[in-house]
Amino acid sequence: MKKTYSMELAGRTLSVDVGRVAAQANGAALMHYGDTVVLSTATASEKPREGIDFFPLSVEFEEKMYSVGKIPGGFNKREGKASENAVLTARVIDRPMRPLFPKDYRNDVTLNNMVMSVDPECRPELLAMLGSAIATSISDIPFCGPCATTQIGMVNGEFVVNPSQADWDNGDLQLTVASTSEKVIMIEAGANEIKEEKMIEAIYMAHEINQTIIAFINNMVAEIGKEKHAYTSCAVPEEMFAAMREIVTPAEMEEAVFTDVKQVREENIRAITEKLEEAFAENEEWLAVLGEAVYQYQKKTVRKMILKDQKRPDGRAITQIRPLAAEVDLIPRVHGSAMFTRGQTQICTITTLAPLSEVQKVDGLDENITSKRYMHHYNFPSYSVGETKPSRGPGRREIGHGALAEKALVPVLPSEEEFPYAIRTVSETFESNGSTSQASICASTMSLMAAGVPIKKPVAGISCGLVTGETDDDYIVLTDIQGLEDFFGDMDFKVAGTHDGITAIQMDIKIHGLTRPIVEEAIARTREARLYILDEVMLPAIAEPRAQVGKYAPKIISMQIDPQKIGDVVGQRGKTINAIIEQTGVKIDITDEGSVSICGTDADMMDRAAELIRIIVTDFEAGQILSGKVVSIKEFGAFIEFAPGKEGMVHISKISKERINRVEDVLTLGDKVTVVCLGKDKMGRMSFSMKDVK
């Protein structure tokens, strides 16, 4: 049965077509918001996937280039692998929805969002977030929703609900908030140093709007929602837990996990697992879920220690940060490097500078962004966690962590006019035991300063965790969570910022939402921690950006020329500019506005290139002294080249103070000479003299 549902959302009509397309999916919603159209579908396998101990959820965000009237670039004229924006959007959809599926559900589920039309006033990412929630809620897939998502921007100090693409790109806030009917379940933000109280105000503005969307979805579910299908539970039997506690007592498990050395803890758990395997050797059913059972036993032990006894596995106080260390100039010859260590988490970031011609070109649905000047890449090799596996390039997690650090640092970068470089930072994870993304922000700040990038303010990042009890007011917020507290806890609340405000937030949780007191406490805790990291660790390592870029970094001279003279500098088929490059060994970039960047490592050659360009674009004036070389000899005089493509003539009578019969008696091809400009001759050409040079 075809049916359309509509509601007013932020001054526009949101409409959802159900039963019109994709009828064989478990749930499908054709979403319309303005002229933006996204098809969201939810499908599930009939049986659970065997041999896994996790929920196999896949989320896709497919950017179809026809949606913006483009044919994909490159040789293969069809969409290829997911863009970075598509990966990040899929992650933002996944994070609030994953906790709402049953914890013991092992059927494969795919949420697919296909962007079919894009209206710049209505961002397709928002529509995909809402469409995924709607398609799943009305399907027969078990789901404890619905959830809803709202985006908040800020223009001229005022909040904008579900902003246009232009306001999103150019405003001071990019906030995405997902909620259930009671609590906030996901936060993602990039901000231009927004104060903590202002950020909280924006979060709960979005939360209130989400309630109207949830009511709209609930109405749809009541009318057309399918009955949720039964599934095979993969929960660990309670009698198995009872047997495990007889073999390994709670006190023994607590002793096994209560250590600040990750490797020791893992060895302890390995010994416990082997002991249980031996005890359950005759019970194949229990052996099949033993890994999950040991995980759950650890989880219950750690949560009880923290919540009831206020004891953390490594012995720290609830608000205590792990031991910190920072240093710069770790790697020679690179343009900038720094290492940041927090406990058993260690990141080294390397900065590379290049001319603006090396910015990353972006081919996507956003017409406002066609290139990226700052690129932050994050790598997570298997050795950082003591494992061995081949490298297959960055996965979605690595792309997401790099994008979070990039988002945190963009607000403090200098403008292109102040610092005409393309900038790339690469964060290499040397060791990991929780919150490497925030360590990469700290390391990258120091690396940028060491490279001589004049950032406006240093940025630091830190993460808070959470353990909750049976009631909303029974909880503990943990400052600086390590890996174990992340795995067994309920929240990973990452906040980055300067002394003056927040630049990025990413909040993931494993429960059905956070109350406002938890959100406020987490934001307050992260502010306190990041100020400590900035003042006590990072700034003592490097107090301010270096005055100049490093020895091995390229140097850049910027100059402005008349745009109408660009053709003179470039020359026919690039002949003139290529000649300058060949003579000096520099790299030259010219924009359509006449901005010229000369990049090189030899200061003298860079100055020479700048001088040649100035000669080319400057009209000769009487009395001007110039140096050049003889490029052509005629009976009546010689032609002197002052710069590639820029020549003038010296009449035979102006070559020498004595009378000469032949030009060749004084000049030969290639001679370097100095002349003075005499102005225009009778034919309107510029005339020069050698003999009148004073």
Short summary of the structure?
The protein is built from 16 helices and 29 strands.
Any overview of this molecule?
It catalyses: RNA(n+1) + phosphate = RNA(n) + a ribonucleoside 5'-diphosphate. The model has no long low-confidence stretch (mean pLDDT 92). With 694 residues, this protein is α+β, with helices and mostly antiparallel strands. The protein has five domains: 3-224, GHMP Kinase, N-terminal domain (Ribosomal Protein S5, domain 2), CATH 3.30.230.70; 238-307, Arc Repressor Mutant, subunit A; 324-499 and 516-541, Ribosomal Protein S5, domain 2; 555-617, K Homology domain, type 1 (Ribosomal Protein S8, Chain: A, domain 1, 2-Layer Sandwich); 625-689, OB fold (Dihydrolipoamide Acetyltransferase, E2P), CATH 2.40.50. The longest helix has 29 residues, at 196-224. Strand 23 (587-590) and strand 24 (595-600) form a beta hairpin. It has an eight-stranded antiparallel beta sheet with strand order 8-7-9-10-21-20-18-19, sandwiched between helices. Strands 1-2-3-4-6-5 form a six-stranded mixed beta sheet. A five-stranded mixed beta sheet has the order 11-12-13-17-16. The protein has 16 helices and 29 strands. The protein is elongated.
Please give a handful of descriptors for the protein shown.
eight-stranded antiparallel sheet; 3'-5'-RNA exonuclease activity; 694 residues; 5 domains; Ribosomal Protein S5, domain 2; Arc Repressor Mutant, subunit A; Polyribonucleotide nucleotidyltransferase; RNA-binding; alpha+beta; EC 2.7.7.8; cytoplasm
Instruction: Please estimate the helix content.
Output: 25-40%
- Could you name the CATH class of the largest domain? Alpha Beta
Largest sheet composition: 8 strands, antiparallel
Any guess at the CATH architecture of the largest domain? 2-Layer Sandwich
In total, the number of strands is 29
Radius of gyration: 32 Å
Low-confidence stretches: none
Discrete helix count: 16
CA-CA gap between termini:
95 Å
Tally of distinct domains: 5
- CATH fold title of the largest domain: Ribosomal Protein S5, domain 2
Mean pLDDT value = 92
Strand content: 25-35%
CATH H-tier superfamily of the largest domain: GHMP Kinase, N-terminal domain
- Tell me the strand order in the biggest sheet: 8-7-9-10-21-20-18-19
SS class: alpha+beta
The backbone outline, from C-alpha atoms, is: elongated
Binding site for Mg(2+): 486, 492
Cofactor: Mg(2+)
Subcellular location: Cytoplasm
Catalytic activity: RNA(n+1) + phosphate = RNA(n) + a ribonucleoside 5'-diphosphate
